[in-house]
Design a protein that fits this description.
single chain; alpha/beta; Rossmann fold; 7-stranded parallel β-sheet; 14 helices; 13 strands; globular
Protein backbone atom coordinates (compact mmCIF):
# COMPACT_ATOMS: atom_id res chain seq x y z
CA UNK A 1 0.00 0.00 0.00
CA UNK A 2 1.49 3.32 -1.07
CA UNK A 3 1.76 6.26 1.35
CA UNK A 4 0.98 9.64 -0.16
CA UNK A 5 1.38 13.11 1.28
CA UNK A 6 -1.31 15.35 -0.22
CA UNK A 7 -0.63 19.11 -0.32
CA UNK A 8 -3.59 21.47 -0.47
CA UNK A 9 -2.35 25.10 -0.28
CA UNK A 10 -5.83 26.44 0.40
CA UNK A 11 -8.18 26.78 3.41
CA UNK A 12 -9.54 23.24 3.01
CA UNK A 13 -12.47 22.46 3.30
CA UNK A 14 -14.46 25.45 2.04
CA UNK A 15 -17.31 24.24 -0.21
CA UNK A 16 -15.89 25.26 -3.59
CA UNK A 17 -14.70 23.61 -6.78
CA UNK A 18 -11.02 23.05 -6.08
CA UNK A 19 -11.82 21.68 -2.62
CA UNK A 20 -14.44 19.29 -3.95
CA UNK A 21 -11.82 17.72 -6.21
CA UNK A 22 -9.27 17.46 -3.40
CA UNK A 23 -11.85 15.84 -1.10
CA UNK A 24 -13.33 13.39 -3.61
CA UNK A 25 -9.94 12.27 -4.96
CA UNK A 26 -8.64 11.66 -1.44
CA UNK A 27 -11.83 9.86 -0.37
CA UNK A 28 -11.80 7.48 -3.31
CA UNK A 29 -8.04 6.90 -3.25
CA UNK A 30 -8.41 5.90 0.40
CA UNK A 31 -11.12 3.42 -0.61
CA UNK A 32 -8.65 1.92 -3.08
CA UNK A 33 -6.14 1.30 -0.28
CA UNK A 34 -3.87 4.33 -0.59
CA UNK A 35 -2.78 5.70 2.80
CA UNK A 36 -3.15 9.49 2.65
CA UNK A 37 -2.27 12.38 4.91
CA UNK A 38 -3.50 15.79 3.78
CA UNK A 39 -1.60 18.99 4.65
CA UNK A 40 -3.41 22.31 4.36
CA UNK A 41 -3.88 25.84 5.76
CA UNK A 42 -4.99 26.56 9.34
CA UNK A 43 -8.34 27.91 8.08
CA UNK A 44 -11.11 25.69 6.74
CA UNK A 45 -13.03 22.85 8.37
CA UNK A 46 -12.25 19.17 8.88
CA UNK A 47 -14.25 16.53 7.01
CA UNK A 48 -14.74 12.97 8.19
CA UNK A 49 -12.72 10.18 6.66
CA UNK A 50 -9.57 12.18 5.93
CA UNK A 51 -6.41 12.46 8.02
CA UNK A 52 -5.65 16.19 8.02
CA UNK A 53 -2.71 18.18 9.39
CA UNK A 54 -2.79 21.98 9.39
CA UNK A 55 0.04 24.47 9.11
CA UNK A 56 0.74 26.75 12.07
CA UNK A 57 -1.15 30.04 12.14
CA UNK A 58 1.75 32.50 12.13
CA UNK A 59 -0.67 35.03 10.76
CA UNK A 60 -4.44 34.70 10.55
CA UNK A 61 -5.81 33.70 7.15
CA UNK A 62 -9.59 34.21 7.28
CA UNK A 63 -10.14 34.20 3.50
CA UNK A 64 -12.04 31.13 2.28
CA UNK A 65 -12.75 32.17 -1.31
CA UNK A 66 -10.34 31.70 -4.22
CA UNK A 67 -7.87 34.35 -5.32
CA UNK A 68 -4.54 35.92 -4.31
CA UNK A 69 -3.85 37.49 -0.91
CA UNK A 70 -0.83 39.25 0.58
CA UNK A 71 -1.05 36.83 3.54
CA UNK A 72 -0.70 33.74 1.35
CA UNK A 73 3.14 33.69 1.13
CA UNK A 74 3.38 33.66 4.94
CA UNK A 75 0.88 30.81 5.25
CA UNK A 76 2.76 28.95 2.51
CA UNK A 77 5.97 29.28 4.54
CA UNK A 78 4.19 27.67 7.48
CA UNK A 79 2.93 24.94 5.16
CA UNK A 80 6.47 24.36 3.85
CA UNK A 81 7.66 23.89 7.41
CA UNK A 82 4.84 21.40 8.05
CA UNK A 83 5.72 19.46 4.89
CA UNK A 84 9.32 19.08 5.98
CA UNK A 85 8.22 17.74 9.38
CA UNK A 86 5.77 15.31 7.80
CA UNK A 87 8.39 13.97 5.38
CA UNK A 88 10.23 12.67 8.46
CA UNK A 89 7.18 11.66 10.50
CA UNK A 90 4.97 10.13 7.78
CA UNK A 91 7.72 8.84 5.40
CA UNK A 92 5.59 9.07 2.23
CA UNK A 93 6.37 7.32 -1.04
CA UNK A 94 5.41 10.39 -3.07
CA UNK A 95 3.81 13.84 -2.82
CA UNK A 96 0.53 14.64 -4.56
CA UNK A 97 0.41 18.43 -4.80
CA UNK A 98 -2.72 20.31 -5.75
CA UNK A 99 -2.25 23.53 -7.71
CA UNK A 100 1.07 25.04 -8.78
CA UNK A 101 1.50 26.52 -5.32
CA UNK A 102 1.40 23.06 -3.77
CA UNK A 103 3.88 21.67 -6.30
CA UNK A 104 6.25 24.58 -5.68
CA UNK A 105 6.19 23.90 -1.93
CA UNK A 106 6.65 20.15 -2.53
CA UNK A 107 9.66 20.73 -4.78
CA UNK A 108 11.28 23.05 -2.23
CA UNK A 109 10.66 20.58 0.60
CA UNK A 110 11.57 17.32 -1.09
CA UNK A 111 14.01 18.34 -3.80
CA UNK A 112 14.56 15.27 -5.94
CA UNK A 113 14.23 12.80 -3.06
CA UNK A 114 10.57 12.00 -3.74
CA UNK A 115 8.37 11.99 -6.85
CA UNK A 116 6.07 15.01 -7.03
CA UNK A 117 2.68 14.79 -8.77
CA UNK A 118 1.11 18.09 -9.84
CA UNK A 119 -2.69 18.02 -9.85
CA UNK A 120 -3.12 20.68 -12.53
CA UNK A 121 -6.46 22.51 -12.44
CA UNK A 122 -5.53 25.41 -14.69
CA UNK A 123 -2.77 27.86 -15.55
CA UNK A 124 -1.38 29.70 -12.53
CA UNK A 125 -0.44 32.86 -14.43
CA UNK A 126 -3.75 33.07 -16.28
CA UNK A 127 -5.79 32.48 -13.14
CA UNK A 128 -3.95 35.24 -11.25
CA UNK A 129 -4.46 37.60 -14.20
CA UNK A 130 -8.18 36.84 -14.23
CA UNK A 131 -8.45 37.55 -10.49
CA UNK A 132 -6.50 40.83 -10.39
CA UNK A 133 -5.26 43.29 -13.01
CA UNK A 134 -2.09 43.67 -10.89
CA UNK A 135 -0.89 40.29 -12.20
CA UNK A 136 -1.45 41.30 -15.82
CA UNK A 137 1.21 44.02 -15.58
CA UNK A 138 4.74 43.49 -16.90
CA UNK A 139 7.19 42.33 -15.54
CA UNK A 140 5.09 40.45 -12.94
CA UNK A 141 3.10 38.63 -15.63
CA UNK A 142 6.32 37.37 -17.22
CA UNK A 143 7.69 36.26 -13.85
CA UNK A 144 4.51 34.28 -13.11
CA UNK A 145 4.67 32.54 -16.51
CA UNK A 146 8.33 31.59 -15.94
CA UNK A 147 7.56 30.30 -12.44
CA UNK A 148 4.69 28.23 -13.78
CA UNK A 149 6.88 26.79 -16.55
CA UNK A 150 9.59 25.89 -14.01
CA UNK A 151 7.08 24.06 -11.80
CA UNK A 152 5.66 22.18 -14.80
CA UNK A 153 9.14 21.13 -15.89
CA UNK A 154 10.19 19.90 -12.44
CA UNK A 155 7.06 17.93 -11.52
CA UNK A 156 7.44 14.21 -12.21
CA UNK A 157 3.85 13.78 -13.38
CA UNK A 158 1.06 16.23 -14.27
CA UNK A 159 -2.56 15.16 -13.80
CA UNK A 160 -5.19 17.05 -15.80
CA UNK A 161 -8.90 17.17 -15.01
CA UNK A 162 -9.68 18.08 -18.62
CA UNK A 163 -8.10 17.39 -21.99
CA UNK A 164 -8.97 20.98 -22.89
CA UNK A 165 -6.15 22.10 -20.55
CA UNK A 166 -3.46 20.18 -22.46
CA UNK A 167 -2.72 23.01 -24.96
CA UNK A 168 -1.83 25.27 -22.01
CA UNK A 169 1.21 23.12 -21.26
CA UNK A 170 4.57 23.65 -22.90
CA UNK A 171 5.18 21.06 -25.60
CA UNK A 172 8.20 19.63 -23.81
CA UNK A 173 6.19 18.72 -20.68
CA UNK A 174 3.13 17.27 -22.41
CA UNK A 175 4.56 13.71 -22.52
CA UNK A 176 4.36 13.52 -18.71
CA UNK A 177 0.79 14.90 -18.61
CA UNK A 178 -2.07 12.48 -18.04
CA UNK A 179 -5.77 13.28 -18.35
CA UNK A 180 -7.53 11.65 -15.38
CA UNK A 181 -10.75 13.61 -15.88
CA UNK A 182 -13.30 14.99 -13.47
CA UNK A 183 -16.04 13.33 -11.48
CA UNK A 184 -19.32 13.61 -9.63
CA UNK A 185 -20.91 11.62 -6.81
CA UNK A 186 -23.65 9.92 -8.84
CA UNK A 187 -25.01 8.20 -5.71
CA UNK A 188 -25.82 11.50 -3.98
CA UNK A 189 -26.42 13.76 -6.95
CA UNK A 190 -29.50 12.06 -8.41
CA UNK A 191 -32.72 13.48 -9.90
CA UNK A 192 -35.01 14.38 -6.99
CA UNK A 193 -38.01 16.44 -5.98
CA UNK A 194 -37.52 19.74 -4.20
CA UNK A 195 -38.35 19.88 -0.50
CA UNK A 196 -41.32 22.26 -0.06
CA UNK A 197 -40.06 23.56 3.28
CA UNK A 198 -36.65 24.42 1.79
CA UNK A 199 -38.33 26.19 -1.15
CA UNK A 200 -40.28 28.35 1.31
CA UNK A 201 -37.19 29.01 3.39
CA UNK A 202 -35.32 30.22 0.29
CA UNK A 203 -38.09 32.70 -0.47
CA UNK A 204 -38.89 31.20 -3.86
CA UNK A 205 -42.27 31.97 -5.39
CA UNK A 206 -44.57 28.97 -5.69
CA UNK A 207 -45.02 27.81 -9.28
CA UNK A 208 -42.29 30.09 -10.65
CA UNK A 209 -39.65 28.41 -12.88
CA UNK A 210 -36.30 28.45 -11.03
CA UNK A 211 -32.86 28.90 -12.63
CA UNK A 212 -30.18 27.59 -10.25
CA UNK A 213 -26.48 28.39 -9.99
CA UNK A 214 -24.05 27.05 -7.38
CA UNK A 215 -20.43 28.16 -7.36
CA UNK A 216 -18.11 31.01 -6.50
CA UNK A 217 -19.55 34.47 -6.96
CA UNK A 218 -17.18 36.56 -9.04
CA UNK A 219 -16.76 38.04 -12.49
CA UNK A 220 -14.70 35.25 -14.07
CA UNK A 221 -17.35 32.70 -13.06
CA UNK A 222 -19.77 34.73 -15.20
CA UNK A 223 -21.96 35.94 -12.34
CA UNK A 224 -22.02 39.56 -13.57
CA UNK A 225 -23.04 38.34 -16.98
CA UNK A 226 -25.72 36.05 -15.50
CA UNK A 227 -27.31 38.98 -13.66
CA UNK A 228 -27.50 40.89 -16.94
CA UNK A 229 -29.13 37.82 -18.54
CA UNK A 230 -31.70 37.74 -15.72
CA UNK A 231 -32.41 41.41 -16.39
CA UNK A 232 -32.87 40.73 -20.11
CA UNK A 233 -35.40 37.97 -19.36
CA UNK A 234 -37.24 40.25 -16.92
CA UNK A 235 -37.42 42.99 -19.56
CA UNK A 236 -38.94 40.45 -21.97
CA UNK A 237 -41.55 39.48 -19.32
CA UNK A 238 -40.29 35.89 -19.18
CA UNK A 239 -41.27 34.34 -15.84
CA UNK A 240 -38.26 33.01 -13.96
CA UNK A 241 -36.57 33.32 -10.60
CA UNK A 242 -32.83 32.90 -10.11
CA UNK A 243 -31.37 31.08 -7.11
CA UNK A 244 -27.72 32.19 -7.11
CA UNK A 245 -25.87 30.18 -4.44
CA UNK A 246 -22.28 30.52 -3.28
CA UNK A 247 -19.83 33.02 -1.84
CA UNK A 248 -18.46 35.66 -1.38
CA UNK A 249 -21.66 37.69 -1.71
CA UNK A 250 -19.76 40.97 -2.08
CA UNK A 251 -22.02 43.65 -3.54
CA UNK A 252 -24.02 41.28 -5.74
CA UNK A 253 -27.31 41.60 -3.78
CA UNK A 254 -27.06 45.41 -3.90
CA UNK A 255 -26.16 45.31 -7.58
CA UNK A 256 -29.13 43.06 -8.34
CA UNK A 257 -31.38 45.50 -6.49
CA UNK A 258 -30.07 48.41 -8.58
CA UNK A 259 -30.86 46.36 -11.69
CA UNK A 260 -34.46 45.90 -10.54
CA UNK A 261 -33.91 42.21 -9.69
CA UNK A 262 -34.63 42.21 -5.93
CA UNK A 263 -37.50 39.74 -6.31
CA UNK A 264 -36.09 37.94 -9.32
CA UNK A 265 -32.69 36.91 -7.90
CA UNK A 266 -32.20 35.28 -4.49
CA UNK A 267 -28.78 35.00 -2.81
CA UNK A 268 -28.86 32.42 0.02
CA UNK A 269 -25.06 32.58 0.41
CA UNK A 270 -22.64 29.75 1.01
CA UNK A 271 -24.07 26.23 0.66
CA UNK A 272 -22.68 23.15 2.41
CA UNK A 273 -21.35 20.82 -0.31
CA UNK A 274 -22.81 17.83 1.53
CA UNK A 275 -26.30 19.35 1.17
CA UNK A 276 -25.80 20.83 -2.29
CA UNK A 277 -28.14 18.40 -4.08
CA UNK A 278 -31.07 19.53 -1.89
CA UNK A 279 -30.50 23.20 -2.77
CA UNK A 280 -30.18 22.46 -6.49
CA UNK A 281 -33.31 20.29 -6.62
CA UNK A 282 -35.78 23.24 -7.00
CA UNK A 283 -34.15 24.15 -10.31
CA UNK A 284 -35.95 23.73 -13.60
CA UNK A 285 -32.85 24.96 -15.47
CA UNK A 286 -29.20 25.25 -14.33
CA UNK A 287 -26.75 27.99 -15.29
CA UNK A 288 -23.01 27.51 -15.87
CA UNK A 289 -21.90 30.92 -17.21
CA UNK A 290 -18.18 30.60 -16.43
CA UNK A 291 -16.06 32.75 -18.76
CA UNK A 292 -12.57 31.89 -17.44
CA UNK A 293 -10.66 29.79 -19.97
CA UNK A 294 -7.89 28.62 -17.62
CA UNK A 295 -9.93 26.17 -15.53
CA UNK A 296 -12.41 23.32 -15.84
CA UNK A 297 -16.09 23.74 -14.92
CA UNK A 298 -16.97 20.98 -12.45
CA UNK A 299 -20.39 22.36 -11.50
CA UNK A 300 -21.61 21.11 -14.90
CA UNK A 301 -21.20 17.52 -13.71
CA UNK A 302 -23.34 18.12 -10.63
CA UNK A 303 -26.07 19.52 -12.88
CA UNK A 304 -25.84 16.57 -15.28
CA UNK A 305 -26.03 13.99 -12.49
CA UNK A 306 -29.09 15.71 -11.02
CA UNK A 307 -30.82 15.62 -14.39
CA UNK A 308 -30.87 19.41 -14.62
CA UNK A 309 -30.96 20.81 -18.18
CA UNK A 310 -28.24 23.44 -18.32
CA UNK A 311 -27.04 26.44 -20.28
CA UNK A 312 -23.31 27.13 -20.71
CA UNK A 313 -21.00 28.81 -23.18
CA UNK A 314 -19.67 26.96 -26.19
CA UNK A 315 -16.14 26.38 -24.90
CA UNK A 316 -13.96 23.24 -25.35
CA UNK A 317 -13.96 22.31 -21.66
CA UNK A 318 -17.76 22.57 -21.47
CA UNK A 319 -18.15 20.40 -24.58
CA UNK A 320 -15.83 17.83 -23.04
CA UNK A 321 -18.00 17.63 -19.93
CA UNK A 322 -21.54 18.01 -21.23
CA UNK A 323 -21.24 16.64 -24.78
CA UNK A 324 -24.66 17.08 -26.41
CA UNK A 325 -26.45 17.29 -23.05
CA UNK A 326 -26.43 21.10 -22.78
CA UNK A 327 -27.81 24.22 -24.40
CA UNK A 328 -24.75 26.09 -25.71
CA UNK A 329 -24.56 29.87 -26.00
CA UNK A 330 -22.05 31.40 -28.46
CA UNK A 331 -19.15 33.13 -26.70
CA UNK A 332 -17.41 36.33 -27.79
CA UNK A 333 -14.35 37.17 -25.61
CA UNK A 334 -14.52 40.90 -26.35
CA UNK A 335 -18.29 41.48 -26.16
CA UNK A 336 -19.83 40.73 -22.76
CA UNK A 337 -23.17 42.35 -23.62
CA UNK A 338 -23.51 40.01 -26.58
CA UNK A 339 -22.57 37.10 -24.31
CA UNK A 340 -25.31 38.11 -21.86
CA UNK A 341 -27.83 38.28 -24.71
CA UNK A 342 -26.74 34.85 -25.98
CA UNK A 343 -26.91 33.31 -22.51
CA UNK A 344 -30.36 34.82 -21.95
CA UNK A 345 -31.55 33.27 -25.24
CA UNK A 346 -30.32 29.86 -24.10
CA UNK A 347 -32.18 30.20 -20.80
CA UNK A 348 -35.31 31.41 -22.59
CA UNK A 349 -35.31 28.43 -24.93
CA UNK A 350 -35.15 25.93 -22.07
CA UNK A 351 -37.66 27.77 -19.92
CA UNK A 352 -40.17 27.73 -22.78
CA UNK A 353 -39.52 24.19 -24.07
CA UNK A 354 -40.36 21.34 -21.62
CA UNK A 355 -39.58 18.74 -24.28
CA UNK A 356 -36.06 20.07 -24.73
CA UNK A 357 -35.62 20.12 -20.94
CA UNK A 358 -36.64 16.46 -20.64
CA UNK A 359 -34.31 15.50 -23.50
CA UNK A 360 -31.29 17.22 -21.93
CA UNK A 361 -32.13 15.92 -18.45
CA UNK A 362 -32.15 12.30 -19.63
CA UNK A 363 -28.99 12.71 -21.71
CA UNK A 364 -27.19 14.49 -18.88
CA UNK A 365 -27.94 11.87 -16.22
CA UNK A 366 -26.92 9.04 -18.57
CA UNK A 367 -23.69 10.85 -19.47
CA UNK A 368 -22.77 11.45 -15.82
CA UNK A 369 -23.28 7.78 -14.97
CA UNK A 370 -21.37 6.50 -18.00
CA UNK A 371 -18.33 8.77 -18.08
CA UNK A 372 -17.89 10.67 -14.82
CA UNK A 373 -17.38 8.88 -11.54
CA UNK A 374 -14.81 9.68 -8.87
CA UNK A 375 -14.00 5.98 -8.65
CA UNK A 376 -12.73 6.01 -12.26
CA UNK A 377 -10.68 9.16 -11.57
CA UNK A 378 -9.14 7.57 -8.48
CA UNK A 379 -8.33 4.35 -10.33
CA UNK A 380 -6.39 6.33 -12.95
CA UNK A 381 -4.49 8.24 -10.27
CA UNK A 382 -3.73 5.04 -8.33
CA UNK A 383 -2.39 3.41 -11.51
CA UNK A 384 -0.21 6.48 -12.03
CA UNK A 385 1.19 6.09 -8.51
CA UNK A 386 2.02 2.43 -9.11
CA UNK A 387 3.78 3.19 -12.37
CA UNK A 388 5.86 5.97 -10.81
CA UNK A 389 6.86 3.91 -7.79
CA UNK A 390 7.77 0.86 -9.86
Amino acid sequence: MSKVLVLAPTPFFSDRGCHLRIYEEARWLSRLGVKLRLLTYPAGRDVSGLEIRRAGAWLGYPKLEAGPSWRKPLVDLALLRLVRRQLLEFSPDLIHAHLHEGAFIALLAAGRELPVVLDYQGSLSRELAEHQAFFRAWPLSGLMRKTEAWINSRADQILLNSAALLPELEEKVRPKAMVVGDGVDTERFVPQEAEPELVRKLGLAEGMPIVVYLGLLNRYQGVDLMLRSAQILAEKKIRAQFLVMGYPLGDYPARAARMGLSETVKFPGRIDYFKAEKFLAPGRVAAAPKIASSEANGKILNYLALGLPLVCFDRPVNRELAGEAAEYAPFHPQDQEQNAQNFARGLERLLKDPGRRRELAEQGRARAEKYFSWEKVAEKISACYREMLS
